[in-house]
Input
Amino acid sequence: MTADEIPSGLSQFEQRARAMLNDSAERLPGSVRSRLTQARYAALQGRAARQSHFMRRWVPAGALAAAALALLIVLVPGGRPTLENPITNSGLEDIELLTDSDAMPLTADQDMDYDFYEWAADEASGAAPSSVGT
Amino acid sequence: MAAFATLITQTADLIPSGKAHLRDTTQDGARALEAFLTGVERKAFRIAQIALRHEADALDVVQDAMLQLSSRYAQRPAEEWRPLFYRILENRIRDVQRRRSVRSRVMAFMPWRGEDEDDEIDPMAQAVDHSPAPPAQLESDEMMQALERALTALPNRQRQAFLLRNFEGLNVAETAAAMKCSEGSVKTHYFRAIQALRARLGEFQT
Output
């Protein structure tokens, strides 16, 4: 709101006082006007200096922290959620082992070649094989 | 890694436009603040000068108010600056008045009077202006001095209400915000100020 919008309904006394005060403000000495200008520039420069100090100090730090965090999330495997859960999927692995025909036998009486093991034991003890070659 | 590369690319695309936007906003804000301070500085000085009756103190008070506004409240909406600025100004004026009051009380008990830098006489301010002033100007100056004396004689709150409403042109709500009081109090202070000034400056009305 400007000063000119105000005095609706002002009495003559108020209008005269206002005109005189405005006139005194317009006729300030040059030294005072110069000091006011200096004060204004000091206030504006102080604000600019504070802002640039803030930007210089916190923006690079924030950017660095964000980059480090992003790098951490992307590169560290433990940070990524895994789709395969070793506990919940262990039943499926067991079924695969049991049904795989090429895998090692898991029980003693399954597909054991007893003749072969008997012959191997005899060979190791140095005795002539009893059944082989007869 | 592909996701990280994408993230870096997107961030790099965003940073320049973000900075440019920030810079434009800052420059607009600085220009608006400068225009505001330019618009209020002379009246603010006169208000402080009438309250303190001391040019150097008035300049210091205005400078403090400008610094305070620009450092703490520049981010606030521009329409709030005027009442905020005058609230800061009135606080600073009151601080100076209190310091003076304390100092005068202390000095009254001292057997000597200390020489203060503020009390030094400024030869430039004391220099006599020999240029002839026109009669109308002399009459205006005398009336202005009478008005200043009458304003100085008012209680602080009445003087604040009168100067903020009549001289600076704040509305009742803005004046109340600047004076930290209700709008009803502003109206009361203003009315009493007018009555007191009229009683003191009867010839001023003609």
Remarks:
- Chain B has two domains: 7-106, 139-201.
- Chain B touches chain A through 47 residues (CB under 8 Å).
